Amino acid sequence: MRIAISGANGRMGRMLIEAVLNHPELTLSVALDHSESNHLGQDAGAFLGKTTDVLITADLSALANADCLIDFTRPEGTLTYLKACRDYKTKMVIGTTGFDEQGKQAIEDASKDIAIVFAPNMSIGVNATLKLLALAAQLLNSGYDAEIFEVHHKHKIDAPSGTALIMGEVIANEWGKNLNDIADWARHGHTGARQDGHIGFSVARGGDIIGEHTVMFCGTGERIEIAHKSSSRATYAQGSCKASIFLRNKATGLYSMSDVISSP
């Protein structure tokens, strides 16, 4: 399967390139970067000391030579790539976070023409954690307060993280609620007592922390914690490769990592 990588010179882009080059079922065919990148024309494997004969380019028409694009850039970049993928019938794995409702709708619209896996976190472990949260929310649907804590590196530009948001959505869905109706995004000053049935969010940013998420269900006399901590972005790259292979026989449709990890 021919794979394109966007943000080829970024940390995540390089991690993805390495994962694709080491994967027996995938072939690196396109490496994209922005038009002002100093690395245009450089071999995509140079950082590994490898010659791949795939040169980093800003030419989106190169996507015609790929079966699937893996994208972990920013919303504005992803939407530009989305349009090109739609034009060239190239599938997409989207790990970018921070989309507004209009951006999410654009992805959903594009999925009528191409197959897309769109997930706030490509880690297999995180997506297994989401399944555990769904079960916990079913069992702890009364008498327990849910709180979500997340920590990321200081360069992350959106908050709460996409992973924290999907965790909240999983719990809210199991409780039969809309997350926006029961989320407490911030607390400051004289807030009064905590409201039953709400989900609290806490955010920390600092250093080079890759990502940590902890969900607490707090009851009377006990507390249940479900946590996931990332020590390497390699888990995101490995999950993205798995998502690409999942799309191999899909022509259209919008899928999640839950679909990917549930597939044979």
Written description of the protein model:
The model has no long low-confidence stretch (mean pLDDT 96). The longest helix has 16 residues, at 124-139. Helix 2 packs parallel to helix 3 (101-110) and helix 4 (124-139) packs parallel to helix 5. Helix content is 33%, strand content 23%. With 264 residues, it is α/β, with parallel strands linked by helices. The radius of gyration is 20 Å and the shape is elongated.
What pattern of helices and strands is seen along the backbone? EHEEEHEHEHEHHEEEEHEH
Total number of strands? 12
Strand percentage lies at 15-25%
Summed up, the helix count is 8
Characterize the biggest β-sheet: 7 strands, parallel
What general form does the structure show?
A: elongated
How are the elements arranged and paired?
Layout lengths: L1 E4 L5 H11 L5 E6 L23 E2 L10 E4 L3 H14 L2 E4 L6 H10 L4 E4 L5 H16 L5 E8 L9 H13 L4 H4 E2 L14 E7 L5 E9 L2 E9 L3 H13 L6 E3 L1 H6 L2
Parallel strand pairs: 1-2, 1-4, 2-3, 4-5, 5-6, 6-12, 7-9, 8-9
Antiparallel strand pairs: 7-10, 10-11
Helix pairs in contact: 1-7, 2-3, 4-5
Task: List the keywords.
alpha/beta; five-stranded mixed sheet; 8 helices; 23% strand; elongated
Quick rundown:
By secondary structure, this protein is α/β, with parallel strands linked by helices. Helix content is 33%, strand content 23%.
